[in-house]
Amino acid sequence: MSSRCARTVLMIIGYLAYLLMGAAVFQALEQHSEEEMRKEMYLQKLLFLKNYTCLTKEAVETFVEVMTAAVKSGVNPVGNGSNWDFSSSFFFVGSVITTIGYGYLAPRTAGGQMFCVLFAMFGIPLNLIVLNHVGKILSSWTEKLGTRLYNRGMDEKRVKVFTIVFFLVVGIILFLALPPFVFSLTEKWSYREGVYYAFITLSTIGFGDYVVGINTAKPYYRCLVAFWILFGMAWLALLFNLLTTFYKDTEKKISKVHWKRKAAKADKKRSNSSQTSGSASEDVIPMGTSDDHEQQTSYTPEAISHLTVQLSKRVQGPDIHSATDELVSTMES
């Protein structure tokens, strides 16, 4: 299996493990609360029928169904405010193009539904362009701060760390820490609920369990919240980009360490094989030595014939011994 396939399999396994872990945690935290709420609902229904004997069970069920349908349509059974005045409509179109989609409010007429499709088709790309531009503005402010710090003599690594920390802290204060105080005053939520709503909204998860402006009659309150959502989404998108870059760098470092270990193992194996071959070559006995050189020396027929002719010429002369000695010395050389 190649390294790319191995990384893909590990990524899928990690992704599924993360989802399974989240499902198990939510089941452990929320299932018991849901059962308790269901028991309380049935108990209240029985007490209501007991106190008002003139009502039948079917009449109560019909009333509950009507109220449930009204809540799903965005109509608050307790208040009298409209969900389709201008400020509420402005907040709705903002939730459409940002793909938050709270789910508590949706167009019911045929014209409204078809217009919503066309509006979202052109509005979502426009929103992405605006978010990209706002993100560049926020990033340029951070870069200017880093440039000023660098010009004042701060180390480059410290400048990078400081700007990232500054970006995170300021964004958390402006978009996650301070708005819940406003929500606590206007929506009567707890601070924890305000933080929960802020992150769920800015991350475009948008469950719809908490929505601003339902219990307040301030006309332009939702418009201000819409602009907060715009800048908050741009900041959170940059934050997610930083986290994605961090994950990618971590993956590259892990892959680099893996390849280094693999190369070290290959080098070690190669050195062991070369040492083994070297020791085997040293154990081989040489075929000849300097003492056997003279015995293994061979002469070609042409050389022997030439020496014979020279010897015959010398033999015809008086000094045969000197010719023989000369022949022997020539062969030895």
Keywords:
mainly alpha; 0% strand; 77% helix; 333 residues; 11 helices
Describe the structure.
By secondary structure, the chain is mainly alpha-helical. The protein has eleven helices and no strands. It has helices spanning 3-51, 57-72, 86-97, 110-151, 156-177, 179-186, 191-202, 221-282, 293-296, 301-315, 320-332. Helix 10 runs antiparallel to helix 11 (320-332). It is elongated. The two termini are 66 Å apart. Mean pLDDT is 79; it is low at 284-297.
Q: Which runs of at least 5 residues are low in confidence (pLDDT < 50)? A: 284-297
What would the average pLDDT be, to the nearest integer? Answer: 79
What order do the SSEs take from the amino end to the carboxyl end, as H and E? HHHHHHHHHHH
Question: Could you give the count of β-strands?
Answer: 0
